[in-house]
């Protein structure tokens, strides 16, 4: 099936610090469509240019007759046989247009005796001959698919990491096809002829699919009283000296979940002004690091109206690459993203996310719901309307991609999308009361995770800090309340575990992590004063790694000159 292959190839290929080209994503008219689900070079590129770094960094993908142009990050070239971007020294096929591959072996599906496998043409060989490095099958199929086999086993993640510039993709070989095109103009699912279908609980099953008709159902057939009440605290934007201490105080090691692990949160990082040593430290101690764009640019509605798939890629894969390079955070740990200003980017955002292996989004505002909504996967239509003026929620299905919607905060008489957008007039007592009100709204009903989505500046009011931490301490007196990261909440939903078993639940354990020496945050980071051509000024970048030459930015994540 075509889609299965597509998943695999994208996993290997675009994953690697590939940059989608500037412009409209549609390549110039002269690049033909080669629709075999592989990346290819333009066969019409002038022969004298094929070895140039510009030409050899370009590659294309054709889907539904539409050609998409991509370009590797600065300093990298596209390797058409491995379908990845890699350093110049490792790429020797700039003159090869498309990958040629032998047929797929039948392996155990042929008619061979015990301990033998079948080649693509049915010839049998001992199983050990397959992927041993030398060609035995007449059709070459014994060696031609080894990379893919490894991919299915997840081994290729290592290759990505060696390049320091990749994303590892969550890889589900059963992923169904993505039928999409950019020709549709309506943003409403009812008008989208290819729109996602309504929730069908008989078809949608955990761990990879979850929906319920009104979005409020507890997963795993558990009664609410057996469900740990999850509280997801998130912070957006740059992490730096202005807020690092605040984060250390809020997530102090004295505040422990009932399983003995310290409370943890999720940081949606935007690049500018971020101190990458601090990010590295937060990651080391078990917080989740997620993507919130390179530029965080305005105007706000650019994200929902104008940003192309390529822009979403540049911004979100770009910031993931920067975090990986300067904070050492493993790419496979950067699983989620949040749109700047919570400006959802319609199908374009979600298409990019599913193609590039993000696990979840947490940008969609849900209308007030009592009981509150549980997260869900986008296999089906979201169980709620799209809140906000000029918002563009996705209309298509994105199987296996999770959405952690933002439930409204009930402030008694009115509701607000986020606690820190409620009202600046609130007193500390008000804040404590609102927190408790919403906690009970979740805890005493369906125990949907309670999301507290904040910005550090809100804590400039010391009364709010006091109220918030008092709320945390009071909630932690209960033995069924856990402060977890966004992705830990998804892990729980994938495998709903009752309170009886929760202390043994692996994804919530702590201290199991082994770090390489370079992955551990240093005490004395370099303060790199770096010019930025784009920003037309200097920026400081604090990192435990080597200073780049230029301030990293879109399409130049490694800060090359
Ligand atoms: Zn933001």
Compact summary:
The chain has 561 residues and is an alpha/beta fold. The chain has helices at residues 2-12, 53-56, 141-144, 146-153, 157-163, 244-250, 276-284, 301-306, 309-327, 346-355, 428-443, 462-475, 486-494; strands spanning 18-20, 58-63, 66-72, 76-79, 84-87, 116-118, 124-126, 229-236, 266-269, 288-291, 336-337, 360-361, 376-378, 398-403, 409-410, 415-416, 450-454, 481-484, 526-532, 537-543. It has three domains: 30-100, Antimicrobial Protein, Tachycitin, Chain A (Beta Complex); 116-153, Low-density Lipoprotein Receptor (Irregular), CATH 4.10.400; 224-518, TIM Barrel, CATH 3.20.20.370.
Secondary structure layout plus pairing:
Elements: H1 2-12, E1 18-20, H2 53-56, E2 58-63, E3 66-72, E4 76-79, E5 84-87, E6 116-118, E7 124-126, H3 141-144, H4 146-153, H5 157-163, E8 229-236, H6 244-250, E9 266-269, H7 276-284, E10 288-291, H8 301-306, H9 309-327, E11 336-337, H10 346-355, E12 360-361, E13 376-378, E14 398-403, E15 409-410, E16 415-416, H11 428-443, E17 450-454, H12 462-475, E18 481-484, H13 486-494, E19 526-532, E20 537-543
Parallel strand pairs: 8-9, 8-17, 8-18, 9-10, 11-12, 12-14
Antiparallel strand pairs: 1-3, 2-3, 4-5, 6-7, 13-14, 15-16, 19-20
Helix pairs in contact: 9-10, 11-12
Question: Can you walk through the features of this model?
Answer:
β4 (76-79) and β5 form a beta hairpin. The protein folds into three domains: 30-100, Antimicrobial Protein, Tachycitin, Chain A (Beta Complex), CATH 2.170.140; 116-153, Low-density Lipoprotein Receptor (Irregular); 224-518, TIM Barrel (Alpha-Beta Barrel), CATH 3.20.20.370. The strands form seven sheets. Strands 8, 9, 10, 17 and 18 form a five-stranded parallel sheet that branches. The longest helix is centred in the middle third of the chain and has 19 residues, at 309-327. Helices cover 22% and strands 15% of the residues. The relative contact order is 0.12. The chain has 13 helices and 20 strands. The protein binds zinc ion. Zinc ion binds next to loops.
